[in-house]
């Protein structure tokens, strides 16, 4: 019983940690939903993929949704785990085990896909593809989300263009005149006087617009960002990926502990049932042995008599005492009196037969 109690304690402890992880996942998903800048910036991660770029929302929006759903499922699984621990039956332990295995496998597949095959998910930061996406989508009507994401990246990281500010020279934004014709770069490439504002990327105000939009390098060098945005985006992606991977590893470790606790609990349950069945089997064995002994005594062909019995039932001396009586005499002593009682509808007293036997033996 002590081992069973220890198994339940370990299982409940793992369930509690698993419940905390599930709640943290739900909170993390809601937090990502509330971080509009982070979600908007993730739009650039899928810029080179036609499938992901055609989605109505950025990639991180769906990741946040998946994290929240995974946290909700993990919380429900932890509740089922507490229920299974209380009932302590194979059925609920099996359901809990399978649900944790499904979560673990799904999480492992996603982590492996993001780590080894990000191109399969449409996540790519190839320089050529990113420059092409910038030149064909920035400032184009219907691509406001992509345009805002590029402006956010340029204001946040202090950069201009995916490779350099020259990326805008052959972009549709400049060739088609979607912006000011005399602007070589967007205003978000300039050094802003309202850079500290949270929505500065939506309404950029350059500190010196004329110098920023100058064509001479010596003139715009101090008023325009000249760094490439692609390395900053790559570092930002790695940072988000590290957070996601670290949280996934912690959750996977706790899930492994839960699986081990379930296996230990099943082992303890089997041991407990074996201990409970052992006394019952011993009692049944004793009953069977006693019945066999009784049957052997009843159907024994000869009954041993006392050695000093040397007289018959009429008091006549019969010589040396015979040590055994045949089965015929046994029938006369027990079976015939029983038949007489049945004929007269009488019930013999419990002590009648032993008395007859004693009289006969004496």
Automatic annotation (TrEMBL):
<feature type="transmembrane region" description="Helical">
    <location>
        <begin position="243"/>
        <end position="270"/>
    </location>
</feature>
<dbReference type="GO" id="GO:0030097">
    <property type="term" value="P:hemopoiesis"/>
</dbReference>
<dbReference type="InterPro" id="IPR018499">
    <property type="entry name" value="Tetraspanin/Peripherin"/>
</dbReference>
<feature type="transmembrane region" description="Helical">
    <location>
        <begin position="59"/>
        <end position="83"/>
    </location>
</feature>
<keyword id="KW-0472">Membrane</keyword>
<protein>
    <recommendedName>
        <fullName>Tetraspanin</fullName>
    </recommendedName>
</protein>
<dbReference type="InterPro" id="IPR008952">
    <property type="entry name" value="Tetraspanin_EC2_sf"/>
</dbReference>
<dbReference type="GO" id="GO:0005802">
    <property type="term" value="C:trans-Golgi network"/>
</dbReference>
<dbReference type="Pfam" id="PF00335">
    <property type="entry name" value="Tetraspanin"/>
</dbReference>
<feature type="transmembrane region" description="Helical">
    <location>
        <begin position="95"/>
        <end position="117"/>
    </location>
</feature>
<dbReference type="GO" id="GO:0005886">
    <property type="term" value="C:plasma membrane"/>
</dbReference>
<feature type="transmembrane region" description="Helical">
    <location>
        <begin position="9"/>
        <end position="33"/>
    </location>
</feature>
<keyword id="KW-0812">Transmembrane</keyword>
<keyword id="KW-1133">Transmembrane helix</keyword>
<dbReference type="GO" id="GO:0048471">
    <property type="term" value="C:perinuclear region of cytoplasm"/>
</dbReference>
């Amino acid at each position: 019983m002590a081992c069973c109690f220890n198994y339940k304690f370990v299982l409940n402890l793992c369930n509690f940690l698993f419940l905390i992880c599930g709640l943290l996942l739900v909170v993390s998903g809601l937090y990502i939903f509330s971080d509009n800048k982070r979600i908007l910036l993730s739009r650039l991660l899928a810029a080179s993929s036609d499938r992901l770029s055609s989605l109505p929302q950025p990639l991180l929006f769906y990741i946040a949704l998946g994290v929240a759903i995974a946290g909700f499922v993990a919380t429900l699984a932890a509740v089922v785990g507490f229920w299974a621990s209380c009932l302590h039956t194979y059925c609920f332990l099996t359901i809990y085990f399978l649900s944790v295995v499904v979560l673990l496998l799904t999480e492992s597949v996603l982590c492996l896909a993001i780590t080894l095959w990000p191109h399969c998910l449409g996540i790519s930061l190839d320089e050529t593809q990113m420059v092409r996406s910038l030149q064909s989508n920035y400032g184009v009507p219907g691509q406001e989300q992509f345009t805002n994401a590029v402006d956010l990246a340029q204001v946040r990281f202090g950069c201009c263009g995916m490779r350099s500010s020259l990326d805008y020279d052959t972009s549709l934004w400049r060739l088609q005149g979607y912006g000011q014709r005399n602007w070589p770069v967007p205003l978000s490439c300039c050094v802003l006087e309202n850079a500290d504002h949270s929505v500065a990327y939506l309404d950029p105000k350059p500190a010196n617009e004329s110098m920023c939009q100058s064509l001479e390098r010596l003139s715009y060098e101090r008023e325009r960002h000249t760094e490439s945005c692609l390395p900053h985006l790559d570092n930002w992606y790695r940072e988000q990926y590290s957070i996601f991977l670290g949280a996934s590893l912690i959750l996977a470790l706790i899930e492994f502990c839960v699986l081990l606790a379930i296996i230990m609990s099943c082992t303890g349950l089997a041991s407990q049932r074996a201990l409970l069945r052992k006394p019952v089997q011993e009692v049944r064995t004793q009953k069977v042995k006693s019945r066999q002994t009784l049957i052997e005594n009843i159907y024994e062909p000869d009954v041993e008599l006392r050695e000093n019995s040397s007289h018959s039932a009429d008091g006549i001396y019969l010589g040396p005492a015979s040590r055994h009586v045949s089965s015929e005499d046994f029938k006369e002593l027990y079976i015939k009196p029983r038949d007489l009682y049945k004929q007269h509808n009488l019930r013999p007293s419990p002590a009648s037969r032993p008395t007859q036997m004693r009289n006969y033996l004496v």
